[in-house]
Specification:
D-Maltodextrin-Binding Protein, domain 2, 5-stranded mixed β-sheet, 11 helices, elongated
Length: about 280
Amino acid sequence: MTGTVFLADSVLAKDRVTWLAVDTVDQHQSGSRPSVPPHPGPGEQARIWLEAHLPDFDHGHDRASVARIERQIEGTGATYCYANALRTPARESYGLFSDAVLHRLPPRLILRKDRLGLLAPHLNSAKQVVVSTLVNDAKLRGAVTLQRNYGTGIDNILAGTKGLERVSAYSTPSRMLSAGRVDWIIAEPVEHARALQAEPGTQRISTRSFEIAGQVMPVVSYVMCNRTPTARKLIAQLNSIMAGIPERPWERPYLEQLDAHERADLARMTMPKSQ
């Protein structure tokens, strides 16, 4: 009888996968925090849908710094996956990647609506913002995050510009914009909305986002796992699921957070190129 129970338990056992999310909580903050973010971003929202369609695995969750996520993906013990990874040559050398999961807008200029009239000199014929002239306009104050990668073209311009507010935390420019301390920031629209959602008491100022000249490719993210047999099986199932559902419902929560002109810009970026 004991042997029969043991065999049944073995058959029913599922491979364990721990999904990691970036921990944005201040590490000096006291008290416990949930293993999943209270305000899930686009990658976490996609992960929730995909996980529900992968019943063959035992799913766990944890939050970690970006550095710790990288270390876990480099390891070969227990299986760890991260649902919002960008592909880089370094990561491809040690991680496994799914097919594309999310297509997001690249960073955009987010401007106070009451400053729209001042933006016209900095728009090209396609109504895209020319950052190289904007940053030198004393009538429009901007804030950027130190050591953040906005894209090579933008980074080079910002590095040589004086007069910008430069802060260390990703969410600070959004709070400064909403408080009226600056007129523009560069961020993904959903990222800006999440920064304000995390602080319900923050003042809200109406804004509009604009495409930046040269930033015309979508940001594509993937599920990235460490190299284990369980991860290989999970990614194979995940790719099969995504290939069979052209409507891509796991991207819907992200799209619903964009306004009409942002969705139109993203649709144009992701439209298959004609042969």
